[in-house]
Design brief:
The protein is mostly beta strands. It contains one helix and 14 strands; from the N terminus they run ββββββββββββββα. Strands 1, 2, 3, 4, 5, 6, 7, 8, 9, 10, 11, 12, 13 and 14 form a 14-stranded antiparallel sheet that branches.
């Protein structure tokens, strides 16, 4: 992974909790928010002032259907050809498993089979993109379709996450404090000129 670098980190804006999530909740001004699936409008940017060191985080507990959140860098495209890593601080409850989602440039969406599982506390973990198998995904329903494949070839336009489930309150949900994407990047402008 010698050519990998930190393409972006998202920590979410430190503004009052709100639902639904909008672009103003994205702290990194280089990132463009995408929301997907029937439960997208119930995703919440959460924070509890009364709790010591409570982060500003994404919470899926009230989602009425499957949901996904994606982020697109305004200046760079992501390339997985020389290694890639997603690192995040999360707290899943119940049976929820948090998966990486990716969209190929001018192509389909995929969801990782590997995922970060439940924890009783906030935990930092990572998913090695190059060691992950993938499932094609129906982004409108946020459901895997088809058979597993190896790492998707080509250039990635957007990347994000989903637990592939509706919310189940505080006892069966996903919480995402921050996310980092490490990979090789190419400028969008140079790709458009090819």
């Amino acid at each position: 992974m010698k050519n990998c670098r930190l393409i972006f980190r998202e920590d979410w804006a430190e503004i009052p909790a709100a639902r639904p999530i909008t672009q103003e909740h994205v702290a990194n001004t280089n990132l463009i928010l995408g929301l997907h699936g029937p439960g997208q409008h119930e995703l919440k940017k959460s924070h509890h002032e009364e709790l010591l060191n409570d982060p500003y985080y994404i919470w899926s507990g009230k989602c009425s259907g499957n949901w996904a959140l994606s982020l697109k860098h305004a200046s760079y495209l992501i390339v997985f050809d020389q290694g890639a890593l997603v690192k995040w601080r999360t707290k899943q409850s119940g049976t929820r498993m948090l998966h990486v989602i990716v969209k190929q440039l001018n192509g389909p969406w995929f969801v990782s089979r590997e995922a970060t599982g439940p924890s009783n506390h906030w935990a930092v973990s990572e998913i090695d993109i190059t060691a992950t198998t993938w499932m094609p995904m129906d982004i409108d329903k946020v459901e895997p379709i088809g058979k597993p494949i190896n790492m998707p070839a080509g250039t990635v336009d957007a990347i994000g996450f989903s637990d592939l489930n509706p919310g189940g309150g505080s006892n069966n949900c996903s919480r995402i404090d921050w996310m980092e994407v490490w990979a090789r990047a190419i400028p969008r402008s140079s790709h458009n000129n090819q």
